[in-house]
Structures are given as C-alpha cells and as structure tokens.
C-alpha cells in the first residue's frame, strides 16, 4: 500500500464498532466495513468495544465477575484497570484480522491514542486529547485501531474508564479532535468525514425493538436533531452515551448511526438535521429497573442540593413529581449505594430520613422536537393513553423535548407499546 503522505489530502473517517460487532462470529463482517471504507478512498480510524455482553468470554461483565468471585468489593482504580482489558483484547483481535488480510494496522490503547481524563474512576471525563500516535499512524499509511471506553490520567498515566457506553465517548472525542486538526505532521491536509457508529440495528429506532415481536413496532429514524439525540440518550434510548451526545452537540459533529450487517443508510445527526420531524413525538425511550427514593421537603432548597450532589458524582437521576410534602428521585439500581452515601452525607444532622421504595420502577418517555410549546397537551394525552392501557402513573417529569412517566417495572413494556402505537405507529 502507498504511504498516504503521497496524497494531496487525507480523508479520514472515525468508525465505532459496538460489542456485538466485535464478537468472534461478527468480526469478519465488521472488518468488511473497514475495508469498504478504504475502497471509498477514506482512511479509517476504528474505535473498538469489548466483545459481546454478559455471559460471553472477554466481555467487561465477565472480566468483573472474575475478581468479584474472590471478594465483591474491589478498589475503583483496580476495577478500571481490569475493565479496560475487554476493549484491548477486542482491539488487538480486530487489528490482527485486518493485518491478516494484507492491511497495515496498529492497535492502540486509549492512553496510547492520547485520551487524557480526570481522576474519576468508573465515569471519567475526557479533559484533553493528544493524538500524536493516531496522526503518526495515518501519516505512515496505517489503519489505527483504538480501544474505546478508556483513557489515562495526565500524571502517572493511571487507566480510567469512561462509563457505560464509553466507546461512543472515545469515538466522538477522536472525531472532534481530528476535525480540528488541519494537517498531518508532514503537512498533508486532513479532512474528516462524518463519524460512523455501527450497531446491530438499522439506526436509531422509534422505540426499543426488544419490546415488540419481530417485524413489528419500531422503525429506524432517518434523522434526529442534536437536542433529540441528547434528550434520548439521557432517557435510555440506545443512541449515544450521554456524555458523547453532549460533546457531539457542542461541537456540531456530524455522525450517522447504522447497521454493520446491512447497507441501510442509518440515522443522520448533523447541523443539516436541525428541524422537527413533523410530528409531535419522534420516539419513545425507556429506562428499566430504577429505584425510587423520597425525602420529606421541609427545606425548599433540598431538591437542588440532592440533584447537585448527584450531578457531581455523575449519576443520571430523574426528579419525579410526588406529593407536596416529598421530593422524589428515580435512579438506576446499580447506583443505589452511591445514592445512599450522598443522602446520608446531606441529611446528616438534619433529622431527615430518606424513604426507599421496595418496588422496581421504570421510566417511559415521549421525546421529540414537536413537543416544544405543546408539553401540556402531550402530557395529558400520554396520561390518557396509559390510563386506557391499564398502566397506572406514579409520577412524572418533563422538559422542552420530553414527557417522562414513572410506572411499575412490570408494566414498562406495556407502556412503551401503548405510547408507540398511539403517537408513532
């Protein structure tokens, strides 16, 4: 292959491959997408997720089980070090696969690719990118494979992880950085195509397909606005990790979410898609298995203090309306211990206790640009639809682009189906 320094300009595309794409039985097809990219005259930088999900070898969940069988509590620093291994294994495997097909490749950890983070283990934020090794690889005509989900601290290079879905964050951050890099080290012009996010569905769906029978229900959306992307990512939809979505919106990064198995065009998100879809509701999002806690609101500032403390700890939380005497929040069950610690700290010496619900809860949301200025109308309609479907509503929260309802976890799927049928199907 020719050194790309001979070209007048280098056309680069960052491609992110999710865990399903990197499973051993799917690696050849994912590799085909990278080779097709080269055939189109683009130079890929591939961001790789760990192989598969819980129950499959080398998945992050299985790696964590190895140490938790010894003892359930592990220090965050060591946990991050362990969890980073899944992406490294998958990255080396994919780079080796392409090399076996005659391509010059290099595998890089997140730290080697220049992703610098703060010191917050488990949900670190990217604070800088120093992409010297990626740029060097491009200059030398190599396809760079970058381990997603991880970075290193600026001092001592301690490995950190970027939270669930963190490979999206890696891909967005690299794409933004490369787009702001005018030339390679030897002066060749650098041009960056829209980021490609590969999944095992045809794009961003109008609802989670797992709630519907095969061939029925949700369809892929042709386009989303940035605000819809950010809102949906916060409310459980499989679009992008929330931090990645916020960064993409901030920098106006163009991207497409597409299926690695098919040639369908996918879902476009770019400055050109900044208009409403023409209907009130674009999609239904949902979050499973939440816990609910309530605090008696003697102090009017307490809700803001609780919310601020959870934001500081990078916990996604959802304030839901309750009775007039209580402040209520729903959070993911995995964050239970963190939330308890926050509450105990804030309420110490205040003679206030928090009440945790023993039930499992779900949050179901209607999302769309069409809700702007129509929140009251849609809220009433949503409640009526769920009442007719026999799904009680126990609280709600809303924003410019969403109406979210708290329901019992056992009825979450029923609620999603009813709302999707009414507003979208």
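-> sequence recovered:
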């Amino acid at each position: 292959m020719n050194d790309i320094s001979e070209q007048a300009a280098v056309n680069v595309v960052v491609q992110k491959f999710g865990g399903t794409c990197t499973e051993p039985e799917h690696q050849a097809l994912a590799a085909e997408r990278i080779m097709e990219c080269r055939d189109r005259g683009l130079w890929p930088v591939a961001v790789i997720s760990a192989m598969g999900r819980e129950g499959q070898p080398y998945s992050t969940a299985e790696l964590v089980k190895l140490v938790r069988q010894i003892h359930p509590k592990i220090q965050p620093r060591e946990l991050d070090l362990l969890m980073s291994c899944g992406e490294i294994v998958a990255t080396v495997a994919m780079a080796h696969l392409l090399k076996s097909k005659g391509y010059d490749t290099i595998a890089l950890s997140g730290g080697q690719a220049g992703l610098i983070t703060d010191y917050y283990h488990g949900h670190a934020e990217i604070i800088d990118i120093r992409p010297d090794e990626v740029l060097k690889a491009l200059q030398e005509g190599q396809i760079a494979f970058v381990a997603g989900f991880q970075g290193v601290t600026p001092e001592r290079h301690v490995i950190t992880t970027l939270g669930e879905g963190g490979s999206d964050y890696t891909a967005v951050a690299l794409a933004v950085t490369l787009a702001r890099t005018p030339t390679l080290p030897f002066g060749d012009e650098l041009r960056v195509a829209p980021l490609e996010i590969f999944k095992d569905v045809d794009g961003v769906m109008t609802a989670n397909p797992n709630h519907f029978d095969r061939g029925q229900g949700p369809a892929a959306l042709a386009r989303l606005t940035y605000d819809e992307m950010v809102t949906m990512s916060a409310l459980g939809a499989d679009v992008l990790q929330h931090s990645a979505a916020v960064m993409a919106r901030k920098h106006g990064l163009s991207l497409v979410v597409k299926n690695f198995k098919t040639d369908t065009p996918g879902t476009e998100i770019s400055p050109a898609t900044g208009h409403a879809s023409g209907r009130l509701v674009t999609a239904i999002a949902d979050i499973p298995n939440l816990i609910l806690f309530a605090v008696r609101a003697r102090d009017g500032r307490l809700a803001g203090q609780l919310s601020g403390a959870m934001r500081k700890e990078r916990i996604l939380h959802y304030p839901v309306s309750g009775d007039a005497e209580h402040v209520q929040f729903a959070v993911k069950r995995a964050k239970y211990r963190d939330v308890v610690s926050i509450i105990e700290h804030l309420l110490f010496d205040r003679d206030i206790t928090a009440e945790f619900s023993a039930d499992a809860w779900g949050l179901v949301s209607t999302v769309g640009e069409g809700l702007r200025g129509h929140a009251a109308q849609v809220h009433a309609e949503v409640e009526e639809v769920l009442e007719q479907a026999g799904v009680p509503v126990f609280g709600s929260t809303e924003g410019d682009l969403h109406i979210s309802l708290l329901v019992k976890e056992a009825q979450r799927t029923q609620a999603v189906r009813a709302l999707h049928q009414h507003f979208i199907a």
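The chain has two domains: 4-200, 283-423.
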